[in-house]
Predict the 3D structure of the following.
Amino acid sequence: MIRTLVMLGFWAALLPVAALIGFPWTLLTGDVSMLYRMTMWGAWTGVRLAGVQVKTVGLDKIDPARTYIFMSNHVSNIDPPILMPLIPRRMSIMVKKELFRVPILARLMRFGSLVPVDRGNRESGIAAVRAAADVIHQGLNMAVYVEGHRSFDGRLLAFKKGPFYLAEECGVPIVPVTIVGSHYVMPKKRFAIRPGTVTVIFHKPIEPNDFGDRDYLMAKVRKVINSGLPPELQESAPTTTEDTKVHQGKASA
């Protein structure tokens, strides 16, 4: 509990600084870069202050000059502040539409090109995919938790189709991402953070020429993300790959 309060307390202390410097600068200039850097630094530092160590694998496979859609599994509330600062260059995400009802926050999120989505409304989901496509065409990376919800036990849930429509629409590479360990550090419906190590595996990008049809692409991304999970959480019999070696201490960060 104390670790969670330390992280939240640090973020609360950082908020006035952002309010005094980052918010006015963004509102006056329309340039969100300063606020974005402050947010990413704050997210990363807060996680470390909570006693969470982060190990990355495969980040060298990402070309910072290119635009990608990062498709990740999702098991914990601590996943976003771990994953987002690791992604090269500026990125966008889809957020609950309710947050856009707060006037100042809504304006800042629009400056940041965040995409509102109503997960319970199909038409809103289609509109969100189109808005996300516009963001990607601006050259921003997009991060998507492809299951749509957090998993209780660390195993993969069913994938949403929207991210794959988005990938086909934009024609940019997909980077499958496997997050391992955050389920132990902060399980779903648990407020307290336990000290531990979270491993973020960036798999080899899937180029648009290798997409195939939508069902094939979904199965391919699922297989790759699944391969990075510990053997006991994988959907089928574990196999030894460069990704599963991470859990055997044989892969370097």
